[in-house]
Write a structure and sequence with these properties.
Blueprint lengths: L14 E4 L5 H12 L3 E6 L2 H14 L6 E5 L5 H10 L8 E4 L16 H28 L5 E6 L13 H20 L5 E8 L5 H7 L3 H8 L10 H12 L10 E4 L12
Parallel strand pairs: 1-2, 1-4, 2-3, 4-5, 5-6, 6-7
Helix pairs in contact: 1-2, 1-8, 3-4, 4-5
The structure holds nicotinamide-adenine-dinucleotide (NAD).
Pfam families: adh_short_C2
InterPro entries: NAD(P)-bd_dom_sf (IPR036291), Sc_DH/Rdtase_CS (IPR020904), SDR_fam (IPR002347)
Keywords: NADP, Oxidoreductase
Length: 270
C-alpha cells in the first residue's frame, strides 16, 4: 500500500475501485486516477498480475495518495462485496469502474459457441458488472453520499454487429449497455450516475493475444478504422477519468463511445 497523502487533482478526495485493474484499460486508468489524486483500490482476479501492476503505478506515481490491491473475482458476489466494503474504512466508495471482462478463444457464432463458454462469459462480463453496481449503490447509500459515479465497460460490439463472431461476448456487452442505461435512470435522483464506456478494438492483451500473428484477422479489423489504427488503453482511461470526475456531473446514461469514429463510418478513407 502506498501511503495516504494529500495529492490534489481532478479526483482529489475520491475513493475509487477498479476491477480488472491489472489489464490494459484497468492499469492505465489506475495510473491516471492515482495521478489525479484519487485513493484507488486496484482489484483483479490475478494476484501476480496485480502485484506487477501495483509496481508500475507506484513507480509512475511515487507520491500518490492511498493505492491498494486486492484479489477479486467479479463473478463471485462475495469477492465484489468484500472489496467494495473495504473502502468503508476509507470513508466509503465514490467511484467504481466495472471494467473486468473476458473474450474467450472458443467464443464463436450461434452454432459453435460452447454453452460453458456462454455461461462463463455472462458470469464475468454481465453478473460481474451487476454485482459491482449493486454493491456500489449500497455503499453510496450507507455513507449518505449525494453523488457517485459508476462506469461500466461495454464495447462497440454492443452498438454494431461484428462479422467475425464472438456471440457470447457481444451479448454480454449488449447487456452491460442496457443495464447501465436503466440504472442511470433509476438512481438519477439520488445523484448516482451510471455511464457505459464503449471502446473500439484496442492494443491490449485481450484482443492482441487473440489476434496473434494472424495478419488476415488483423486486416479484417484495421480496414474499418477511420484512423487506420487500433486504439490505445490510455485513450479509454482518459474518458473514464472524465466520467469519474465531477466535470461530467450532468453526463448520465450515456453510451460513451471512444472509437476514433469507427461506429460512425460508412466507408473508410483509402
Ligand atoms: P485485458 O485482458 O488487458 O484486461 C482484463 C483484466 O480483467 C485482466 O487483468 C484480467 O486478469 C481481469 N479479469 C479477467 N477475469 C476476471 C474476473 N473474473 N474477475 C476480475 N478480473 C478479471 O483487457 P482490456 O482490453 O483492458 O479490457 C478491459 C475491458 O474492456 C473488458 O471488459 C473488455 O471486454 C473491454 N473491451 C476491450 C476491448 C479491446 O479491444 N481490448 C474493446 C472493447 C471493450
Amino acid at each position: 500500500m502506498a501511503s495516504p497523502g494529500t495529492l490534489a487533482g481532478r479526483l482529489a478526495g475520491k475513493n475509487c475501485m477498479i476491477t480488472g485493474a491489472a489489464g490494459g484499460i484497468g492499469l492505465e486508468t489506475s495510473i491516471l486516477f492515482a495521478k489525479e489524486g484519487a485513493n484507488v483500490l486496484m482489484t483483479d482476479v490475478s494476484n501476480d498480475a496485480l502485484m506487477k501492476a501495483f509496481g508500475k503505478v507506484s513507480q509512475l506515481v511515487p507520491n500518490s495518495n492511498r493505492i491498494e490491491i486486492r484479489v477479486c473475482d467479479v463473478s463471485k458476489e462475495g469477492d465484489v462485496k468484500g472489496a467494495v466494503e473495504h473502502l468503508d474504512t476509507w470513508g466509503g466508495l465514490d467511484v467504481i469502474f466495472n471494467n473486468a471482462g473476458i473474450m474467450h478463444a472458443r467464443d464463436d457464432d450461434a452454432i459453435n459457441t460452447p454453452e460453458e463458454i456462454w455461461d462463463l462469459t455472462q458470469n464475468i462480463n454481465v453478473k460481474g458488472v451487476w454485482y459491482g453496481c449493486k454493491h456500489a449503490v449500497l455503499a453510496l447509500r450507507r455513507h449518505g453520499k449525494k453523488k457517485g459515479s459508476i462506469i461500466n465497460t461495454a464495447s462497440v460490439v454492443a452498438l454494431v454487429g461484428s462479422a467475425t463472431p464472438q456471440l457470447a461476448y457481444t451479448a454480454s456487452k449488449g447487456a452491460v449497455l442496457a443495464l447501465t442505461r436503466e440504472l442511470a435512470i433509476v438512481h438519477a435522483r439520488e445523484g448516482f450516475r451510471f455511464n457505459a464506456l464503449c471502446p473500439a478494438p484496442l492494443n491490449t492483451p485481450l484482443l492482441q493475444d487473440w489476434l496473434g500473428d494472424d495478419q488476415a484477422k488483423r486486416h479484417r479489423r484495421e480496414v474499418h478504422f477511420p484512423t487506420g489504427r487500433f486504439g490505445e488503453a490510455v485513450e479509454q482511461a482518459q474518458a473514464v477519468l472524465f466520467l469519474a470526475s465531477d466535470e461530467s456531473s450532468f453526463v448520465n446514461g450515456t453510451d460513451f463511445v471512444v472509437d476514433g469514429g469507427m461506429t460512425k463510418a460508412y466507408v473508410t478513407p483509402e
